[in-house]
């Protein structure tokens, strides 16, 4: 089991003026901060309690069915050859768009408020993020904020480092961090009210939370309808459901879950943080910049995770483009002082 640093007491952050100008609301400037913004000071963690049997069955299906769909897609390709660009596009195109909904919308915009944007942009990112089938924006962000509150310490919903030592327990911890935590009761109303009260008040996010089951249905049926219309066949619709629906959801899930598991075990550390988060080049590219995870935990409110010039961060490029076109403003970045202070 990796050794994590003692969790420091959260400190207040200060906002420094950007060298480009003093008006932080100006869309041409950034909001530079000298210290990462903490979540509210930690309280003693209370166990969430065991989930009900219905919750366990639901989450097991959420985990298993997309994996089976991915296996079916691989088998079909092996057995029958290339299935056509339509289905490949529905799978990987759907992953790309909904995955960005998670990284730009759920994560950087809603969880950490690393930038502000227009109402139409907020609705767009909330909707495509919800179509990823990783939970409503309110519940996803509440869980993520809790993760930052206790990262790699008791209370973290999905740390791989909370099991005893030894190879077997290390594997158990890795599985728990990847998807096992989903059936352990961390999706609670108490946590939602505690960690995301601001998001619960938002009419757009609140509507998506209340109607999330229909979002899931739409996420699965939309690629089926597209494939059915393109091929004008029922079999095409079924393949669209398989490839662009269930298999796409499975692929997107594992990209996100790998940040919880792989990026807390494998990679490098460039900055001091209170956990064992790592920068991982592979997932920095595959997960739209989320793999620069040590950077993120060192500076949680930064809109940019790939802090070095060579660290490709697609989500940051999109946020930067939104800022350049007037769709985003008050984009938060760490100051040079903060980078130097936390550098290892």
Describe this entry's structure for a reader:
With 344 residues, this protein is mainly alpha-helical. It has a domain at 51-257. Helices cover 55% and strands 4% of the residues. Helix 2 (85-111) crosses helix 10 (234-261) and helix 4 packs across helix 6 (189-195). Residues 1-12 have a biased composition (Polar residues). It holds the Pfam family FA_desaturase. One of its GO terms (molecular function) is oxidoreductase activity, acting on paired donors, with oxidation of a pair of donors resulting in the reduction of molecular oxygen to two molecules of water. Keywords: Fatty acid metabolism, Iron, Lipid metabolism, Membrane, Oxidoreductase, Transmembrane, Transmembrane helix.
Outline:
The chain is mostly helical and 344 residues long.
Poorly predicted runs: 1-28, 37-42
Strand order of the largest sheet: 1-2-5
Shape: globular
Say how many strands there are: 5
Largest sheet: 3 strands, mixed
Question: What is the number of helical segments per DSSP (H or I, 4+ residues)?
Answer: 14
The helix/strand class is mainly alpha
Distance between the termini: 21 Å
Mean pLDDT: 88
Write down the secondary-structure element order. EEHHEHHHHHHHHHHHEEH
GO molecular function, one term: oxidoreductase activity, acting on paired donors, with oxidation of a pair of donors resulting in the reduction of molecular oxygen to two molecules of water
Family: Belongs to the fatty acid desaturase type 2 family.
GO biological process, one term: fatty acid metabolic process
Membrane topology: Multi-pass membrane protein
């Amino acid at each position: 089991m990796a050794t994590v640093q003692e969790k420091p007491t959260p400190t207040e952050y200060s906002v420094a003026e950007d060298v480009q100008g003093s008006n932080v609301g100006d869309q041409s400037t950034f909001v530079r901060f000298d210290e990462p913004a903490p979540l509210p000071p930690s309280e003693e963690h209370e166990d969430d309690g065991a989930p009900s049997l219905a919750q366990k069955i639901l989450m097991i299906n959420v985990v298993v069915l997309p994996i089976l769909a991915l296996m079916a897609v691989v088998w079909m390709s092996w057995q029958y050859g290339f299935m056509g660009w339509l289905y490949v596009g529905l799978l990987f195109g759907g992953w790309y768009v909904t995955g960005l909904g998670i990284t730009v919308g759920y994560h950087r915009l809603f969880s950490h408020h690393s930038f502000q944007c227009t109402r139409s942009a907020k609705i767009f990112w909330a909707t495509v993020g919800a179509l990823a089938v990783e939970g409503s924006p309110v519940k996803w962000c509440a869980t993520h904020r809790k993760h930052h509150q206790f990262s790699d310490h008791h209370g973290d919903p999905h740390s791989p480092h909370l099991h005893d030592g030894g190879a077997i327990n290390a594997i158990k911890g890795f599985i728990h961090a990847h998807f096992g935590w989903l059936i352990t009761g961390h999706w609670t109303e108490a946590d939602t009210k505690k960690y995301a009260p601001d998001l619960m008040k938002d009419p757009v996010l609140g509507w998506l939370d209340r109607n999330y089951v229909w979002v899931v249905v739409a996420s699965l049926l939309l690629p089926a309808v597209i494939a059915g219309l393109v091929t004008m066949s029922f079999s095409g619709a079924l393949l669209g459901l398989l490839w662009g629906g269930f298999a796409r959801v499975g692929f997107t899930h594992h990209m996100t879950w790998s940040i919880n598991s792989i990026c807390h075990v494998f990679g490098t550390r460039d900055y001091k943080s209170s956990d064992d988060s790592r920068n991982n080049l592979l997932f920095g590219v595959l997960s739209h910049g989320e793999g620069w995870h040590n950077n993120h935990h060192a500076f949680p409110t930064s809109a940019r995770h790939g802090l070095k010039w060579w660290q490709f961060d697609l989500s940051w490029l999109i946020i930067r483009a939104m800022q350049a076109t007037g769709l985003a403003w008050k984009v938060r970045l760490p100051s040079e002082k903060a980078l130097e202070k936390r550098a290892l």
